[in-house]
Amino acid sequence: MKLNWKTRSTKYILQDKWISLRADSCIMPDGKIIEPYYVLEYPDWINIVPLTPDNEVIFTKQYRHGIKQTILEIPCGAIEPSDNSPADAAKRELLEETGYSSDDLIELCKLSPNPANHTNTTHCFLARNAIKNSKQNLDPTEQIEIQKIPLPEVISLLKSNRIQQTLHVSALFYALEYLKEIKP
């Protein structure tokens, strides 16, 4: 059975540096026409699970206007055109948001934030032996507080639903599995 849709036409409703919204006219394999089908175009993103030599995960705490809450997250951001690779973007974002760096970067997974209507991919990294070697270099819209949390406490945070960002939960899961912290 063929399941892929075909795009008949596309109309952009909004085009911006960080997000574009388009309305597609689609035809399903059975001939049904779906219009408009809204698609959000974002640049690819990165998430980093930074781990210090003392086995502490470096978290960021910041306000997120979409849910109007200050929440605990891992360092993250968009891959910018000046980045040569997702790994370069991860190193840049880690340094900018936290002042920490790592020469031991491992790509854990690639995820689709919302395959129904988002075009981008999120690249998740583990940054082992992260050390503080500079001040934060935040964007004008960022106010970030740093928290270092021992690895065993991270599992408790996850179990008690204290980390709300879905893609960050996924990255932490992959990091914990890589580090063999998840027990069968």
Description of the structure:
The chain has two domains: 6-41; 45-178, Alpha-Beta Complex (Nucleoside Triphosphate Pyrophosphohydrolase). Strands 7-4-10-9 form a four-stranded mixed β-sheet, with helices on both faces. The protein is globular, with a radius of gyration of 19 Å. The longest helix has 13 residues, at 86-98. The chain has 184 residues and is an alpha+beta fold. 19% of the residues lie in helices and 41% in strands. The model has no long low-confidence stretch (mean pLDDT 96).
**Major sheet size, sense and barrel closure:** 4 strands, mixed
Query: Shape from CA axes?
Result: globular
**Could you name the CATH topology of the largest domain?**
Nucleoside Triphosphate Pyrophosphohydrolase
Judging by the overall fold, what is the CATH architecture of the largest domain? Alpha-Beta Complex
CA radius of gyration is 19 Å
- The end-to-end span amounts to 38 Å
Alpha-beta content class:
alpha+beta
Q: Could you state the order of secondary-structure elements as H and E? A: EEEEEEEHEEEEEHH
Low-confidence stretches: none
In percent terms, what proportion of residues is strand?
Answer: 35-45%
Helix share, percent: 10-25%
**CATH homology-level superfamily of the largest domain:** Nucleoside Triphosphate Pyrophosphohydrolase
By DSSP (H or I, 4+ residues per run), the number of helices equals 3
DSSP strand count: 12
CATH class of the largest domain: Alpha Beta
Mean pLDDT comes to 96
